[in-house]
Design a protein that fits this description.
It is a single chain. This protein has one domain: q2cbj1_9rhob like domain (Jelly Rolls, Sandwich). About 25% of the residues lie in helices and about 20% in strands. It contains 7 helices and 11 strands. The strands form 2 sheets. Strands 1, 2, 3, 5, 8, 10 and 11 form a 7-stranded antiparallel beta sheet that branches. The protein has a 4-stranded antiparallel beta sheet with strand order 4-9-6-7. Bound molecules: 2-oxoglutaric acid. The site of 2-oxoglutaric acid (AKG) has 13 residues, from strand 3, strand 5, strand 9 and strand 10.
């Protein structure tokens, strides 16, 4: 079943957001989707999370990472309504414009639902998981519910995207401790975009250091994330167990040096002619 909202009309990215991504590695874009649009997709996303999230044990039985959220990756594959949201041309065009590239592909999506009483998301950099030979990568993080200040959105280490890999510290207690120590020692500027409305979005680059606070409220903090990279990117070195897993699961095992353009990585902006329904009219697809 699909919903009436196509999410295909482009929203011009404000110059301040483009500059913020370039200079700080993150930005907020208010009203990228309307409350009504998001509400049309939220039930399908939350229901797919309940059906497919791995670790749904009681919170007290989970480790730090498990307490941070219920997580489902490439959730678009489970439900056509969710696919319509993840493949939305409006979101992909925003990502392309913020990265300053003409075309982007999907790396993967991730639903991240922080439960009532859920724990903090430890400091980490995303891109040390990703074997992508570019720094032109960006995540859209969009709450599907209004997120009050007590729940909060992410905190970013402004400017850290310019440093590339700071340490091979994968998300967990160790990354939280090591990055917190670094932030403190170097007095790194940190910023949050605070409370957000459903349909607002933050965007952060692949190397931008970030964390999120715990959820002390009774609200399910439902968030959809979509990770994009510049079209033309090649698979990078497989130099860790994490990158090997990502190569296998999200890049169809494409070898290093080849184009990162597997069946799970459709070009989302500009949308391929297939998805615009042009194939039916006998035009070639891209
Ligand atoms: O939603 C969160 O708590 C963290 C999200 C995150 O780390 C990401 O989208 O890269």
């Amino acid at each position: 079943m699909s919903v009436a909202f196509k999410l295909d009309d482009p929203h011009a990215m404000p110059a301040a957001a483009i500059a913020s991504v370039r200079d700080k590695g993150h930005a907020v874009v208010h009203g990228l989707a309307s409350g009504e649009e998001v509400e049309a997709f939220r039930p399908a996303i939350e229901s797919a999370v309940r059906r497919h999230a791995d670790n749904q044990a009681p919170l007290e039985e989970r480790g730090t990472y498990g307490k941070a959220f219920l997580q489902v990756t490439n959730i678009w594959q489970y439900d056509d309504t969710v696919k319509q949201f993840v493949f939305a041309p409006r979101f992909a065009k925003a990502a392309a414009d913020l990265l300053g590239v003409p075309a982007v592909r999907l790396y993967h999506d991730q639903a991240l639902c922080k439960e009532p009483g859920g724990g903090h998301t430890p400091w980490h950099q995303d891109q040390n998981f990703w074997p992508l030979d570019t720094d032109k990568t960006i995540t859209m993080w969009m709450p599907l519910v209004d997120v009050p200040a007590e729940v909060g959105s992410m905190t970013f280490g402004s400017g850290t995207h310019k440093r590339g890999e700071i340490g091979q510290w994968f998300i967990g207690d160790d990354s939280e401790a090591k990055f917190a120590e670094l932030v403190e020692r170097e007095k790194l500027p940190t910023e949050t975009h605070g409370a957000m409305k459903a349909g607002d979005a933050t965007f952060h680059k692949g190397w931008t250091l970030h964390r999120a606070p715990a959820n002390p409220t009774a609200l399910l903090r439902s968030v959809m994330t979509i990770i994009y990279y510049a079209d033309g990117t090649r698979v990078g070195p497989i130099d860790s167990k994490m990158r090997r897993m990502d190569q296998k699961f999200w890049l169809a095992d494409i070898p290093p040096g080849e184009l990162a353009a597997g069946p799970l990585n459709p070009r989302l902006w500009p949308p391929s002619l297939d998805r615009l329904g042009m194939r039916k009219q006998g035009l070639p697809s891209s």
